[in-house]
Structures are given as structure tokens and as C-alpha cells.
């Protein structure tokens, strides 16, 4: 479909074109809300070949998912545009002749864009462990979510990499469902003596996991399949070859610079550090007119969850525009 000329001022700027941004864009398209979607082409799931737990798109290529979603929007609707670029600056300011209380953003090339509302669908970024070979095995042989990836790796030995929090006992419980011949915790040194972690470790052992506290020197990717697996090398003793490793790295907001510039509140780092939502029904942040969706505002970072949050954010931004227009008319 031939799109109309792009407006000088959009209703909504959607920063991010992952599942959350795409569903926000589709919601805008369905309500004929003028929106511009920015695609930085930097994705948290870079290298992931299949996404899971999405009805009708289970075990589907996430890049193909994105391509189809964008194609459907661009070919059918006439009020949503896509723009490749990385937004580096964002400010709340009066825009247009009406001096609307809106926003201006700027991309890495210095181009400015204005809109009445913002949706941050900017996602998060994993902080990978500083172990030789970790990056080369991520995400092919290191998984942070067994519900997402464990099924395909079933029937091979499982390694739990580190034991940094009580939740690692839950990883052992989940791993048991995939028929592993063995489950070993590779703690990469002594496990913390903190009571909650020791209690979780006791549970993990009771479930059948063994503990190996040797220091890890490197991880070797033996091939693309879980039957090839990953080999863990230590400072001493024999290496161990596994089907895959389970490890949940820390995450940070991919667009923390924009969050700081806009003065948006976030939750405590211990709780994930993501954007705090002031109105959960419609995903508005602590700054009026800024809405958030997807991994940047939830602890459970899943495709289906991100999609629903994108819909909520776009609905909230659209309703706020409508209410402000009604107030002006009255």
C-alpha cells in the first residue's frame, strides 16, 4: 500500500521494533494513529534461531517473525511508518504551533523527530560472563530459560553454570523434566555461604544435582547440536562435556540513556532495574506521555508477554491523546 506523506509531528514515536514495538505499531495501525517506529537492528535475541511459547509461531525464526509482522503492517495500513536508526536523545518539550506538551527525539545521525507521545520498546541487554568461550557458546549452548529452549536439548547432560541465587535450584527442577543423564552445578569457585543460597543448594542436591566447585578456564563449542555440546575446562582435573549449560546473566536496559534523559523512574537493580510502570493498565511510566512495553518494563522477558505489553502501551498512549483532544474541544 502506498503510504500517505509522513507528518511533521506524529501522534506516537515507537522506539524499538521487537515484538513489543511491532505489536504497538499494529495497535496504532488498527486505530489509524500516526506512528513512526524506529528499528535500531540491535536485538537481544541476536543469534537465536527459534522462538518458542508463541501460539502459531512456536519454533519459529524470530527474524522471519519480525519481517512478516512489518510486511503486514506496511502493506495493509497507511498511518504507520518504519525508520531504521538508533535514537540517542529524547526530551519532553512543547511542539508544533499549538505548543503541544510532547516530545522530540534525535537519532545518531542528528535527525530530529517530534510526537505527542513516546513508547519505549527498547528492550534489554544481557551482560555475559567474563569466561573465555562464553560468548561463543551464547546462545547456542548456554540457555537462560529452560521453558524457552530446554525441550530441544532433552536427553543430554545438563550443567548449571554458577549458583548465584536461590533461583538456581529452580533451574535444577526444570532441567529434570528434560531427561538428563546427569545434572551438575559448575559453581566456578566456592558457593556463597549466604543462608538462602545454601538452602537452595541443599535442595538442588536433594533433587539429584552434584556440585563441582573447580574454577573454569574456558568453554569450548563442539558444534551446533546439543549432541555435540559444550566442553567445560578447569584449572585442574578432567574437562566435562555437556549438552548445554544453564545460566541467567544480569540484564540492563538497552536504552538506559533515554530513560535517564527523560527522568523515568526504574525499579531497584536487585529487582531487575527495569522501567517502573505508574499505570499498569496502560503502561504509562512516571513521566506523563511516556509509555513502555516489553523487556524494558517487565521481569518476565518473553515474546508473548512483550507483544501484549506493546498493545497496552499503544492503547494507553492513544487514549491519552483522545482525552486531551476532548478536553481541548470542550
Automatic annotation (TrEMBL):
Chain ranges of the FAD/NAD(P)-binding domain: 10-157
Statement: the UniProt record of this protein carries the keyword Nucleus: no
GO function terms (MF aspect): oxidoreductase activity
InterPro entries hit by this protein: FAD/NAD-bd_sf (IPR036188), FAD/NAD-binding_dom (IPR023753), Ferredoxin-NADP_redctase_2 (IPR050097)
Keywords, alphabetical: Flavoprotein, Oxidoreductase
Biological process per Gene Ontology, one example term: cellular response to toxic substance
Family (UniProt): Belongs to the class-II pyridine nucleotide-disulfide oxidoreductase family.
Descriptive protein name: FAD/NAD(P)-binding domain-containing protein
Lineage: Eukaryota, Fungi, Dikarya, Ascomycota, Pezizomycotina
Amino acid at each position: 500500500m502506498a503510504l500517505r506523506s509522513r507528518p511533521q509531528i506524529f501522534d506516537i514515536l515507537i522506539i524499538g521494533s521487537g515484538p513489543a514495538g511491532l505489536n504497538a505499531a499494529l495497535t496504532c495501525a488498527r486505530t489509524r494513529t500516526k506512528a513512526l517506529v524506529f528499528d535500531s537492528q540491535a536485538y537481544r535475541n541476536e543469534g537465536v534461531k527459534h522462538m518458542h511459547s508463541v501460539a502459531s509461531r512456536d519454533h519459529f525464526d524470530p527474524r522471519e517473525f519480525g519481517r512478516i509482522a512489518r510486511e503486514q503492517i506496511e502493506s495493509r495500513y497507511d498511518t504507520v511508518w518504519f525508520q531504521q536508526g538508533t535514537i540517542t536523545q529524547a526530551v519532553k518539550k512543547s511542539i508544533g504551533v499549538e505548543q503541544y506538551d510532547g516530545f522530540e527525539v534525535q537519532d545518531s545521525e542528528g535527525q530530529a523527530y517530534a510526537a505527542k507521545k513516546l513508547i519505549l520498546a527498547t528492550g534489554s541487554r544481557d551482560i555475559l560472563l567474563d569466561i573465555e568461550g562464553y560468548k561463543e557458546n551464547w546462545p547456542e549452548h548456554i540457555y537462560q530459560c529452560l521453558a524457552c529452549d530446554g525441550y530441544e536439548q532433552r536427553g543430554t547432560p545438563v550443567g548449571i553454570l554458577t549458583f548465584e541465587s536461590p533461583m538456581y535450584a529452580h533451574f535444577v527442577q526444570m532441567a529434570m523434566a528434560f531427561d538428563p543423564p546427569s545434572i551438575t552445578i559448575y559453581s566456578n569457585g566456592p558457593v556463597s555461604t549466604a543462608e538462602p543460597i545454601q538452602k537452595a543448594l541443599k535442595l538442588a542436591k536433594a533433587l539429584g544435582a552434584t556440585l563441582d566447585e573447580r574454577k573454569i578456564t574456558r568453554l569450548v563449542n563442539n558444534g551446533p547440536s546439543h549432541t555435540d555440546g559444550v566442553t567445560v575446562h578447569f584449572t585442574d582435573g578432567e574437562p566435562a562435556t555437556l549438552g548445554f549449560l544453564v545460566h541467567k546473566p544480569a540484564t540492563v536496559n538497552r536504552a538506559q540513556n533515554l530513560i535517564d534523559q527523560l527522568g523515568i523512574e526504574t525499579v531497584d537493580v536487585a529487582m531487575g532495574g527495569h522501567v517502573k510502570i505508574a499505570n499498569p493498565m496502560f503502561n504509562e511510566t512516571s513521566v506523563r506521555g511516556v509509555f513502555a512495553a516489553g523487556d524494558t518494563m517487565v521481569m518476565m522477558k518473553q515474546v508473548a508477554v512483550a507483544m501484549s505489553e506493546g498493545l497496552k502501551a499503544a492503547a494507553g498512549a492513544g487514549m491519552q491523546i483522545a482525552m486531551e483532544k476532548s478536553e481541548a474541544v470542550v
